[in-house]
Amino acid sequence: METKLTLKLDQSVIQSVKKYAETNNRSLSKLVEDYFKNLISETEPHRHFSPLVEELSGVISEKDLKNIDYVSYLEQKYE
Questions:
Q1: Residues 37, 47: contact at Cβ < 8 Å?
Q2: What is the pTM of this model?
Q3: With 80 as the cut, is the pLDDT of residue 65 above it?
């Protein structure tokens, strides 16, 4: 469930982070949420991945990783 949160920040910080969010195709709300999740994960014992890693997880199946030819193809492609 999403809930509205009001924050008071320095105007120059808000302008800078809005530009950063736009450049990185993220909403300001998503940046704040990800930051808070990161803070929480530092104190909790579970492992937390960056939003980019979470977004990319599952792109390659375990079956593909077991295929040596496919792994070699990817290694050559991204060298």
A1: no
A2: 0.50
A3: no
